[in-house]
Amino acid sequence: MHSEGEAWALLFFGEAHANQELKIVWRITTTELAVTAEAQHEDGTIVAPIWGPEYHESSTWERPGEEWGTGFNFSKPGCWRITVTSGETKGDIILEVLPELAANIQSEPWVIFSAERAHYQGIGTFVGNSQTTEHWTPSESDILALENGLGTYLENNPERFTEGTPVWERLNEYNRQYIGLTLEGKQIIYANYFCDSQQIDWRENFVFVLDGGDCYFQFKYDPNSGEFFDLQVNGVA
Fold it and tell me: Rounded to whole angstroms, what are the CA distances from 203 to 96, 100, 144, 237?
């Protein structure tokens, strides 16, 4: 703090990475109507928020003062000092920004999550259950081999699907996400298939939906042996 007022910061992220939109909410004790914010890198580079400060009329975050929201996108990794000012009240936080996450590999109907992005989103924490989970990035050839054998695997498990035209005859209706996991020392690919992404940016964010029936199904695949296993189909509410 640099004044007699108070400033609080609430970070809406775990790790901060370069070239990623990051939301920070502030509470500031001030009688002023205007709030400014900026961030300065350790090398002197200064950036403004990509949006905000935006005043929040209501909130469940209980801290003194008025609430404002900001969004930042840091162009490079390193140490950044973020400063907010309102009248005579001024506060700052120091944020260590990590290098940019590796990009996902994309094709028209599917995306391969990079190991870094899968770890960042914590996907293995619920896919691996109690098993030791690490991440790796499957190759496009791994996915082509998987998709080449998938129809036969699904056709051999028809009892898992209950709605309309067999799923293996309409796979072109599904988008899919592929995540490389190491479970108890064994590399497998976790496949997440869905016909409705629920307005989620599915090329960047994992799609998790309860119920929905045949529109959502998942399975695991061993790229070394070519084995498909652990087919799961969502229930119907």
Answer: 26, 17, 18, 26
User: What is the model's pLDDT at position 2?
Assistant: 47
Q: What is the 3-state secondary structure (H, E, C) of 182-218?
A: EECCEEEEEEEEECCCCCCCCCCCCCCCCCCHHHEEE
* Residue recorded with tokens 């990079």: 114
Residue spans of the chain under pLDDT 70: 1-4, 126-132
Report the C-alpha gap between 12 and 75 in whole angstroms: 18
Query: If you count them, how many residues does the chain have?
Result: 237
Instruction: Classify domain 7-97 at the CATH class level.
Output: mainly beta
Q: What is the DSSP string of 68-104?
A: EEEEEE-SS-EEEEEEEEETTEEEEEEEEEBPPPPPP
Helices and strands, number each (H, E), in the chain: 3, 15
58/67 Cα distance (integer angstroms): 8
Rounded CA separation 123/220 (Å): 14
Residues of the chain with CATH 2.60.40.10: 7-97
